[in-house]
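[scheduler] slot 2 assigned
[scheduler] job type: sequence-to-structure, two independent chains
[scheduler] chain ordering preserved from manifest
[runner] begin chain α
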Amino acid sequence: IPGMQKVLQAAGRVVRSESDRGIVLLMDDRYYDPAYVALLPASWQLYDEDIALAAQRLEETACTEEGER
């Protein structure tokens, strides 16, 4: 699937060094399709607990930034 190469390249630009931190959100139903999931790196295989934790941290970050405005 040619578009997946671009997805992987874009995600690789988020973290360039060991001190960088970032989140890559693939928010399309296609990324639940086994054909797409098989093309993603093994380290991207997340479980419901991982997703819940990421959502919680994203919400906390948004609340913190909103409070700083």
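[runner] end chain α
[runner] begin chain β
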Amino acid sequence: MQGGGIMRIGNRLFQFIIYFLVGFTILAAKERFSEDLFKALKYRNIGPFRGGRSAAATGVPGNKFLAYFGSTGGGVWRAK
């Protein structure tokens, strides 16, 4: 088996690269930011705002791109 040595070297190289990448990722994840950077942030709702409730939804057999939606306030919506 002449290719056995080359395969072994390839496997070792692959393992080394994986260990290197995992180690590098762990070191990068340990990098922390100062908590002072986040003190000025405040929670706010930026949407999307709820427009209403849906009563029913259905698709059209044979046409996977067509659907109908019924709302509790009345009305039917068609989506293509």
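[runner] end chain β
[qc] chain β: The chain has one domain: 4-32+53-79.
[scheduler] slot 2 released
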